[in-house]
Amino acid sequence: YSNASWTLPSTASFMTSLQSSVMGGLPRGTNRVPDEAVTMAEHVHRAGYQTAVFTGNPNAGTLSNLQRGVDLFREDWADFSYFGRNNHKEASTNLHEGFWTWREAYPSQPFWAHFQTTDTHGDFPTVPPFAGRFVSSGERDDYLAWRERLNAAGGSWMYSPAFDSTEISRTAFYTIHQGMYDEAMAHNDYELGPLVDRLEAEGQWENTLLIIGGDHSTEAAIGDMLAVYDSLPPRWGRPMFRPTISHVPLMFVWPGRIPGGQRFNQPVSMIDVLPTLLDLVGEPLLVHGMKN
């Protein structure tokens, strides 16, 4: 489970193993991890690792003060259209290319790299060949036209009264929304394949610990509820523990070190990723938590 419902406090939490409340709550307007909080990059940098961060979301970077301890920091605002730039649906492709450019320029070992992609953010459609996998071109055109009408009438959020005034079906709109989210997720998942393939080809895969997680989930899952029940779920807002927001994937892959095929059903918090990582690579928590 993530430790917050949106990127900035959640990423800050798993990058420091501290709850955002300990770091002052990270309210909008300040949005800065305190200098006293030791980040994951700082931990591994002090242990002798080359460090790099590749992010398509500034909330996971300089807006959060998470560039500390990073030898190469790539923040692709151009891939984050919420900030008025280009399509960020290919963030994973672009960030992985940046990673290999870095490795070619600085091939020494060991290294630590963090990717924070934005492929699955909600302004659809996604990129080919994944666009059209779950949603037809006609459905996509309907969705985009509906979204334009809804936004003009007050917004396309689930509980917006614009659905009633425009007589656009919430069920139809969010069912297509869910399908396009799945297309974006398929693209994000696919891009892990070429990354692993090249690590294998470079002879680095056997020595690589790969951790796959998420900073939060999405309300897109509500589309399933509408498709099944054809009615609005309770208006809970965005509390931290709403499962459609806080339930995220978490996978640890380390060939020859962690046996494959294991699955654990106990609740796990993203806040425990940092100490688990350091334990696995044999690095003590010398300066864990807040600096004195």
Describe this protein's structure.
- This protein is mainly alpha-helical.
- It contains ten helices and five strands.
- It has helices at 7-16, 40-46, 91-105, 137-153, 162-166, 170-190, 192-201, 222-229, 243-246, 273-280, and strands spanning 50-55, 72-75, 111-116, 210-212, 251-253.
- Strands 2-1-3 form a three-stranded parallel beta sheet, with helices on both faces.
- The longest helix has 21 residues, at 170-190.
Summarize the structure.
With 292 residues, this protein is mainly alpha-helical. The protein has helices at 7-16, 40-46, 91-105, 137-153, 162-166, 170-190, 192-201, 222-229, 243-246, 273-280, and strands spanning 50-55, 72-75, 111-116, 210-212, 251-253. The longest helix has 21 residues, at 170-190.
- Could you estimate the helical fraction of the residues in percent? 25-40%
Give, in spatial order, the strands making up the sheet with the most strands: 2-1-3
* Shape descriptor: globular
Largest sheet: 3 strands, parallel
Overall SS class:
mainly alpha
Strand content: 5-15%
Distance between the termini: 29 Å
Oligomeric state of shown chains: single chain
Question: Which residues form runs of ≥5 with pLDDT under 50?
Answer: 78-86
For the structure shown, list the relevant keywords.
36% helix, three-stranded parallel beta sheet, globular, mainly alpha, two-stranded antiparallel sheet, 292 residues
